Amino acid sequence: MIAAHVHDALRQVRELKLRVLDSQMFTGYSGRVRAVGGVAALLGAEVMNRPGFPATGRAHLIGWGLVLLVAVVANYAALIVWFVTTSGPHRDMRRLMPTVDALPPLAVGAILSLVLLRHGLIDLLPGTWMCLYGLTNLASRRVLPKAIWLVGLYYVVCGVVLFVTPGFTFTNPWPMGIAFCVGEVVGGFIFHRNRVPNGSIQSFVAGREQS
Known about the structure:
By secondary structure, the chain is mainly α. The chain has one domain (28-210). The protein is built from nine helices and no strands. The protein has helices at 2-24, 31-48, 57-85, 97-101, 103-118, 125-139, 148-164, 174-194, 201-210.
């Protein structure tokens, strides 16, 4: 009898813990769309590497700007679709706060980019972008799948490598194209594996326990 009560109490504690995790975990990002952004980065590098593409910093800056625009529009469109199609208590504006938390490091990245451009330090842009994007992933690790911190660390390491690599130039698109392709595909895989319909961690765990 006592063992049964203890077992029931442990089950209730597990359910309470799952409810807390469910309220904290953000599942609005689409893994597939994030992976598409990585493929777009690789395709962008391929286009910018072609002989007919102008080998100027301005042209490459515009090229990467277009890649960024495609990724941002695709990801936020998927986010809006997720929010609109979510029903019940999960459809709450407060659940979009993780997207707001990601804005400060991205805003700092934009400001630093303008400063570097103003001083003619365009070759430092890729490393700066990777490091700050990595910090954005690391800052969101408590509301996103835990494995996302590895992606954040990967981007920071890639950024540092570009900073210390002699002879690296902004007009060489391959290092950034490959780095972002790998990072976004892996990040997309992590999101896809951890995304549960309606953001329900409980239903995922319940299904595992029943199997």
